Amino acid sequence: MNQPRRDAAAQLQDLIGFVQAAPSPFHAAEEVARRLVAAGARRVDGTRPLPAEPGGYVLVRDGAVAAWVLPDAAGAGRPPALRIIGAHTDSPGFTLKPDPQDESAGYARARVEVYGGALLNSWLDREVEFAGRVADRRGGVHLVRTGPVARIPQLAIHLHREIGQEGLRLDRQRHTPPLLGIGGDLRGHLAAAAGIDRGDLAGWELITADTQPPRTFGLAGEFLASGRLDNLLSVHAALIALEDLLAAGGQPADRAGEAFIPLFIANDHEEVGSATATGAAGPMLAELADRILAAAGVAGPDRHLALARSTCISADGAHGVHPNYPEEHEPGHRPMLNAGPVLKVNANRRYATDAVGQALWARLVDAAREATGAEIAEQAFVSANHKPCGSTIGPLTATRLGIRVVDVGAPMLSMHSARELTGARDPWLLTAVLAAWWAGR
Questions:
Q1: Residue 218 included in any domain
Q2: Is the torsion defined by CA of 235, 314, 267, 177 positive or negative?
């Protein structure tokens, strides 16, 4: 297995650039595609037959993206299995409503709707932009980002003396509309950002993004603070692993010498349940798996044989132990930042990991240690019995495809905040283990 081309510090800076280039799922999908094309992959149109020639390919569908590498069919043994890494491109925040603007007390405000399980208080007193896509009346679609145009101002303590005793209580409808200006025209601003006339603007899917850049901090610079780490950190880790695979020639084989097909998918809408055409509960991955296997010459009963040997690693954010709330964690399972990626287990199958998946992950951690020389702990997260467990695309993928899925992720704090926190080494450590998966271990 080749060692990763980047060290931890270099990958961290690359992640910072990636997050800044991806303020929305649509931007994230396009940035993944742009980078993979630069690495040698070919962008394909999902409405046309998929190519059958060996090599790397990438496909964008709305705010989701998929990429794969077809092996050389020469000397192939059994039908090639799929080695899938799954992630998601969306993050919690506020989306812009169809009638985007109102007025209150002489100020222009944006009309917004809460998207996903956002920590609302974390969005207060931040200069935010709207980012995503707009559609014009002719059917054209434009990626846009407004730059810092909005802020949700908090009420001063002098006007809310009770906050010390009652805590902050935000009404999602009354207290979260962002301030835009004294007058002004948000619709016109969106049209200008898209390069179209105001009257041509027909629709949009836009979400808030914090405009404060990511940054490292800590006494030794050991932490990274950034928006959208859940789940752009995992998207980026898989992207790096795939770029490295393409740079190495893109012809992976397992320990028995049999070819397999690396497949990366980053779905949209995970934060709201995934039940969309581009979400993990939709048909995108199953359809692509069929089409990719057909392009590789796998058809009929051989398709079932290929899927029976296929596995997915579902990479999403994992909860690191919180130093101020350790009692909220399961006592025997308290993942630390900068120690290594986390295996996620739940008896009620909110995570899909089983015993065989645990053993697979242990082998991959061993391979990553060997390749990097790094200390990588085998960490696991299990929810405490008094806490409900979140979920991922993992159980949905297992259900849709009938394949083994292993749920993992980099540990973080402040999950679902406008500004999340992870360790400075965690992106690199996650990539090292994911790279071992596609290196045939």
A1: no
A2: negative
> What backbone torsions phi and psi does residue 2 show, to the nearest 5 degrees?
-75, 145
Q: Which DSSP state fits 207? A: E
Tens digits of residue pLDDT in 135-174: 999 999 999 999 999 999 999 988 888 887 888 899 999 9
- Element (DSSP H or E) covering residue 216: strand 215-217
CA 223 to the chain's CA centroid: 19
DSSP state of 253: B
Residue 189 lies in a domain: yes
Residue-by-residue DSSP string for 111-152:
EEEEESS--GGGGBT--EEEEEEEEETTS-EEEEE--S-BBB
Residue 311 shares a structural domain with residue 355: yes
What CATH number did the domain enclosing 116 receive? 2.30.250.10
Take residue 179 and report the two structure tokens written for it. Answer: 């301030």
CA nearest neighbour of 434 among 53, 11, 90: 11
The total number of structural domains in the chain stands at 2
- In angstroms, rounded to a whole number, what is the distance separating the alpha carbons of residues 282 and 289? 13
Dihedral angle computed from the Cα positions of residues 239, 241, 247 and 249, in that order, rounded to the nearest 10 degrees: -120
Gap between the Cα atoms of 97 and 421, Å rounded:
29
Instruction: For residue 123, tell me if it sits in a domain.
Output: yes
Whether residue 109 sits in one domain with residue 75: no
Residue carrying structure tokens 């081309």? 5
Q: What integer pLDDT is reported at residue 5 of this predicted model?
A: 56
Whole-angstrom Cα distance, residue 299 to residue 291? Answer: 10
Measure the CA angle with vertex 63, ends 281 and 306; round to 5°: 50
Helix (H, G, I), strand (E, B) or coil at 288: helix
Which residue stretches of the chain have pLDDT < 50?
A: 1-3, 74-75
d(CA 406, CA 409): 10
Could you tell me if 83 and 205 lie in one domain? no
Asked if 204 and 286 sit in the same domain, the reply is no
417 and 310 assigned to the same domain: yes
Task: Tell me whether residue 2 is in a domain.
Answer: no
Distance in angstroms (rounded) separating the CA atoms of residues 415 and 426: 15
Note whether 248 and 349 are same-domain residues: yes
**Structure confidence at residue 167 (pLDDT):** 83
Please give the residue range of the domain that contains residue 78.
8-91+227-438
pLDDT at 185: 96
pLDDT of residue 4: 52
C-alpha 51/C-alpha 43 separation (Å) is: 10
Beta strand pairing call for 311-315 and 404-409: parallel
Q: Are residues 141 and 436 in contact, defined by beta-carbon separation less than 8 angstroms? A: no
pLDDT at 347: 92
Q: Is the domain of 107 the same as that of 153? A: yes
